[in-house]
Design brief:
Structural class: alpha+beta
CATH superfamily of the largest domain: Translation initiation factor 3 (IF-3), C-terminal domain
Radius of gyration: 30 Å
Low-confidence stretches: none
Number of domains: 2
Number of strands: 9
Mean pLDDT: 85
CATH class of the largest domain: Alpha Beta
């Protein structure tokens, strides 16, 4: 986070300023010395908010608390702007029902984080002959995830793997 380039306390260069309190109450125009005295009475700082020509608006606040809040809002904004990561779930041709339930729960946890899924079914040896059965296994698994996901691209076969991309429903 870059520190804002705001003039505080003695760095403010003006004869008269318009003073705003912490609660955004306007106290009117006064000399800079009077404004500094009001701020120092409460052990607070003066920060220049706006400056144009001969008008300078300053606010009474705790400058370090202000910087802390800025830092926290920056952190929250970074978390919100996080790009979802493509997650992969691998299943096999002869997967048991319990293992499918585990994979389903895993997919639901990915859905909570708004992550898309790539579902892969790997086939070995003679399983490659039964591509149609493998496709129905994938489609059945995808149907159980319809609550959170929808198919983005059709099932594709690459060598001995079938894969499908699932997009989160918003």
């Amino acid at each position: 986070m870059k520190e804002p380039k705001k003039n505080i306390n003695n760095a403010i260069k003006a004869k008269n300023v318009q003073l705003i309190t912490e609660d955004w109450e306007n106290l009117g125009t006064m000399s800079l010395r009077e404004a500094n005295e009001k701020a120092s009475e409460n052990w607070l700082d003066l920060m220049e908010i706006w400056k144009k020509d001969d008008i300078v608006i300053v606010k009474i606040l705790d400058y370090w608390k202000y910087l802390y809040k800025l830092k926290k809002t920056d952190q929250k904004n970074k978390q919100r702007s996080k790009v979802p990561e493509m997650k992969t779930i691998k299943i096999t041709f002869n997967i048991s029902e319990h293992d499918l339930d585990v994979k389903r729960r895993q997919a639901f946890s990915f859905a909570k984080d708004w992550n898309p899924i790539k579902l892969i079914l790997a086939m070995k040896w003679r399983e490659n002959q039964y591509v149609d059965i493998a496709k129905t296994k994938i489609l059945n698994f995808v149907k159980t995830l319809e609550e959170f996901y929808k198919v983005e691209k059709d099932i594709t076969k690459t060598w001995n793997m079938l894969s499908v991309n699932l997009k989160i429903i918003k």
